[in-house]
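Journal club side-thread
Mid-discussion, someone asked how the predicted structure for our own chain would compare to the paper's figures. Pasting it here so we can look after the session.
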Amino acid sequence: MAHDHGIEYQVKIVHANGTEQLSGWMTSEEQIPQVMATVHMSPGKTYWLLRRNVVCPNCPDLEQRILEFPLTTVPSLRCQPHDSRYLRW
């Protein structure tokens, strides 16, 4: 039986109040610019690209992982620098 593996992409918008808005999952990188062209980017929001590997049911030993990549450099509550002084000896 053939294995059906691949990669899917999703755009996530995080609003200033913490709510999230998600696009549908896309099956190719070429669809990302099309989705981003419909997004009205504005201050106070952050934009993320989610990438997940798709595994078939015949491969139970593989796990589906989702990675997040920032599409903008606008800081958000999710990416605040933290004080790492406690790591010093």
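Post-session note: The helical segments are 31-38.
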